Amino acid sequence: MIMIQDKALWYTNEINTEDELTELLEELYCLSQQSERTPLFRGQCEAEWMITSTFYRNFFEVFKLPRITTFEELSQYLNESCGNNDYSDLHDKMILEFAEYCAKELGLSINLPKEKDKLDANFYLALAQHYGLPTNIIDLTKSAYVALFFAFDYKDDVRHNSDYACLYQTNTIEWVGTINKLTLNGQYFIDESENDLTEIASEYNFLSENIEFPELREPCFEHNLRIRNQQGCVYFNGDAVPYDVLMYRLKERCSLDERKIKINRNLKPFAMDYLKDKGITHDFIYPKSELDPLKEALEKKTSSLIEKYKN
Predict the structure, then answer these.
(1) How far from 214 is each of 136, 185, 259, 278, CA to CA, in Å?
(2) Alpha helices in the chain (DSSP H)
(3) Which residues contact 266 (CB under 8 A, 6 or more apart)?
(4) How many CB atoms lie within 10 A of CB 202?
(5) pLDDT tens digit string along 204-223?
(6) What range defines the domain where residue 169 resides?
(7) pLDDT tens digits, residue range 55-80?
(8) How far apart are CA 167 and CA 258, in angstroms?
(9) What is the pLDDT of residue 154?
(10) Among 24, 71, 228, 248, fewest CB within 10 Å belongs to which?
(11) How far is it, in rounded angstroms, from Cα 229 to Cα 96?
(12) Starting at the edge strand that comes first in sequence, how are the strands of the sheet with 164-170 ordered?
């Protein structure tokens, strides 16, 4: 049986020269301009890191979950019982308290379009994430340029585990329809051994419709310049199974353009100059506080909530 870590290599490309990076960025920009099948991107400064939510990274010790950063740790996690309802319960309580603070103390009350008496949970989830409150959402962006900025957004004196930063290309928006179609046709059973099926089931339930891609509406951009400038999208990951594992599973079963692109760190100066020419700078990604009047109050609240719920 091919192990998960080997499967990950099938979808990994390496970029080592300026010409290769320029060609890649031009290709990704063209993809992002398509009206259909528009991909999403994520940048990470360590190519070997798995994509996990900030809530998982902050609270795995509270729930005595293993810290999943490598495929070895992932295998251990999948081989153990990982059901824990308190995991999502604590998450939801913390987000609810954050939303109530925004609505009652800051007057930031955003309701659902069709249910005016209910707060828009997606809005507050995205707001919480961007102001430092750990959530179960994975940040993605419609812009390959923004993702590349995050891949190289680190101090030059930081020590790294590898010589590569990383850019992910994914298409979460199409996942639900693809999975439902494969389930209906029974296609995911083809050429799979019993052990493979067990492995798949432990990582992702293909019979489930529980893939969530929260919609961010105009109020998010009005009240959060960071989300607007970063062309942000979010994916709700209610479990501790890393996002990139789901990417590989979907890639195996359909033609979605899921891939991982490792970019040599030596290209950082070239990449940042390239992005500067496109208007992607630190001040653009992180607007100054005077342009973001709620920043101080929201960051103070998120700090107090983290301290409260970790203890």
Answers:
(1) 12, 27, 22, 28
(2) 4-10, 18-32, 54-59, 71-78, 85-105, 121-130, 144-151, 175-185, 194-203, 218-223, 225-229, 243-253, 268-277, 282-285, 295-310
(3) 163
(4) 15
(5) 333 334 445 555 555 555 55
(6) 4-310
(7) 888 887 777 766 666 666 666 665 55
(8) 11
(9) 92
(10) 228
(11) 26
(12) 12-15, 259-264, 164-170, 40-44, 137-141, 232-236
Two tokens at 233? 């999208």
**What are the CA-CA distances from residue 29 to residues 8, 24, 173, 307 (Å)?**
24, 9, 18, 41
Lookup result for tokens 């890649």: 24
How far is residue 122 CA from its own chain's centroid?
A: 15
Collapse the DSSP code of 239 into the 3-class scheme (helix H, G, I; strand E, B; otherwise coil) and give the result: coil
Sign of CA dihedral 247, 285, 31, 19: negative
DSSP state of 291: G
Give the rounded distance of the alpha carbon of 90 from its chain centre. 20
Number of domains the chain is built from: 1
